[in-house]
Amino acid sequence: MLDDEVIEFFRTRAEALGAGYQTMINAALRAVVADAASQDAEDKPITVATLRKVLREELHTA
Length: 62
Description:
Elements: H1 4-17, H2 21-43, H3 48-61
């Protein structure tokens, strides 16, 4: 359940912009999910196989 303050914030902002408040909440949540997914991808260590692949590609183009 969302807090009343959160809903009111998005309703006020949506009304000013002529948009739907639920659509705006969804967009905000999607942005957080995308950012978290990006962070997760950056935090994963590189595997030996990936390192070898990158080195081969870089040495091939050099």
